[in-house]
Design goal:
Rossmann fold, 2 domains, six-stranded parallel β-sheet, alpha/beta, about 20% strand, binds magnesium ion, five-stranded parallel β-sheet, globular
Length: about 260
């Protein structure tokens, strides 16, 4: 395997599974850092703060600060603040996303008539009243953005639960409005932000992850080499059935040399 100047790691299914470290993931990251490579963690999951990831990774033996983590709430907040300043945003999402948006100075609204942009995310407290408000906002011409495309999120016991992608599908079905802007992986928006933060270009970096439709698709959309790890949601049968072409297929991150 080629030595890269930078490594972008997905988290769930790649560095850990639930609360369990993938064996030797800590040693892999330490080895890359010792070599002088820059490492960043890149997660689509919109329901936790970067501070939580830094604490969790550090406890698992991978010392980190919040600045080592780019997640879809951070990418959404920075993107809205820089590309759509002054716009009022209706958010369908949880407190970590809302806080990241407020920290970036994004103006939030619950009022349909004030909404310039609807930002759809994963919200485990969503009600029909909120779904209806989002529906009306789109009907009245609000722009349609989303934090991440994942339709499900794996949870304990091998089950999955509906994620942001399912909420996007619900609103597309009810309004006939199609999503305009995806911010999380595989969007170039989050990729370019991650590259800017580590100060490298796409061709200098390797993206490592367990999902074909997000982590590996980033290779096609942003020009990165990719490594699929088989410790998460994807197995070899899935890979054979898919048109995705990761640069490397690894049993786990422990194989990164
Ligand atoms: Mg993953």
């Amino acid at each position: 395997m080629r030595h890269y100047a930078g490594y972008l790691f997905d988290l769930d299914g790649t560095i850990y599974l639930g609360d369990e470290l993938i064996p030797d993931a800590d040693r892999t990251v330490a080895k890359l850092r010792e070599r002088g490579a820059r490492v960043q963690f890149l997660s689509n999951k919109p329901i936790a703060r970067r501070e939580n990831y830094a604490v969790k990774l550090t406890k698992l033996g991978i010392p980190c600060t919040p600045d080592d983590v780019v997640n879809s709430p951070l990418a959404s907040a920075r993107y809205l603040a820089s590309e759509h300043p002054g716009k009022r945003v209706m958010v369908m999402g949880e407190a970590p996303l809302q806080q990241e948006l407020l920290d970036a100075g994004v103006e939030l609204t619950d009022r349909v008539e004030d909404t310039d942009i609807l930002l759809v995310s994963w919200d485990r407290d969503v009600t029909w009243v909120q779904m209806e408000a989002a529906h009306q906002a789109l009907r009245q011409g609000a722009r349609f953005f989303a934090t991440n495309p994942d339709t499900v999120c794996p949870v304990e016991g091998g089950r999955t639960v509906p994620d942001a992608g399912a909420m996007i599908a619900y609103l597309q079905a009810s309004t006939d409005c199609m999503l305009e802007v995806m911010i999380g992986k595989p969007s170039p928006i989050i990729t370019e932000m991650a590259l800017a933060r580590i100060g490298l270009t796409a061709d200098q970096c390797l993206m490592i992850g367990d999902r074909l439709g997000t982590d590996i698709a980033m290779g096609e959309t942003a020009g990165l080499d990719t490594a699929l790890v088989l410790t998460g949601v994807t197995n070899r049968d899935d890979l054979e059935r898919s048109s995705a072409k990761p640069t490397y297929v690894l049993e786990s991150v422990a194989e990164i040399s």
